[in-house]
Specification:
mainly alpha, 444 residues, 63% helix, two-stranded antiparallel ribbon
Length: 444
Amino acid sequence: MGQPVREYLLTLCVTVAVTYLLTGPVRKFAIAAGAMPEIRARDVHREPTPRLGGIAMFGGLCAGLLVADHLRNLNGVFELSNEPRALLSGAALIWLIGVLDDKFEIDALIKLGAQMIAAGVMVIQGLTILWIPVPFIGTVALTQWQGNLLTVALVVITINAVNFVDGLDGLAAGMVCIAAAAFFLYSYRIWFGYGIEAAAPATLFAAILMGMCLGFLPHNMHPARIFMGDSGSMLIGLVLAASAISISGQVDPDALALFAGGERNATHAMFPVFIPLILPLTIIAIPMADLVLAIVRRTWKGQSPFAADRGHLHHRLLELGHSHSRAVLIMYFWSGLIAFGTVAYSVHSASMWIVLAIAALSAVGLILLLLPRFTPRAPRWAQGLVPPRYRHAERAAEAAARDASGTEPEPARPIAAGVSGVNGATAVGPRSRFPDRRKAGSAR
């Protein structure tokens, strides 16, 4: 088991490194190509920021697949399954459409059609849902048309859910990374815990997806230097959907060797184990909720479901008074709680401690939501752990105060660890008015 872990770690590190190193040149290319749209009414950033970050992420995807193909244990995924090639084909198509949209603003219906075609390309090459386990009934085999339609629907929904949540710096990449980590743990357990080779492609896809997000995040954290654009958000949404389809549609529940007695009763008894199989989108429950609420909200107002607005969950967090960084961290918290809580419950469903821990963490999350003005501050001994950009912003604020008053200002209180103002200002005090002139927010 140790050898596959090292190979996954190597694949992850290569994907991270390639994505990270490519993002800088891609940023310069995006600026030269003019992929910097004007500020729109729904945007929360203040200056035009280049897009096309998906180019670097696609490079990381290709590098990860290439490395895995040359590793001894992971090479079997390519020899025994056509799913990696199916993923690469669909990803290349959706990435190309995203690049064109980042530059020329393609109509929403055209993008929807392209998403369905990309999903169809993967279906044709074998990446499709074959069966689903249903409590009280057992394993239900799907017809070819049922499996194909369900696969296309899952891909389109996941892509748009990730695209809708991409509204703040680092939000989409971080949430998808959390989802991919949870999926990796579950699929790795299915592969090596039960010896199910069919779970190998999903495990590989999840590891590569983590690398794509981790490599891009340093450039995309607040204040972002580049946005992933639709070329990135649709790409990572498709890869996440491919992981879910692979683990839920290709792994036969009978092969888990968990049944005892009749299949119907066993499926019901083992329902917690099948939660990630039946409901793979629970790991992106927050983006899915945002997607559903957006469609209902826009339809209720008589608008197109694809019409952009400022009613997303992250916008509402900012309206409550949360800072940009704090809003992103809250979304991270809830995504991680739902994703890892679901996986933990599927492993130890009989443990009351898991339920109590999830309830306690949910209470903590609600408290954080209700206290937008609460500003945690790092103690003086921990100032070295505060990101440099926040320390520099505090010094700039002190210098500005000194120049404005002509006197030596009182020492500022320790700054918050990773907390910044809604408009990109670093919180030095409750009434700080010294905005950071760098870019803030994300263009969605």
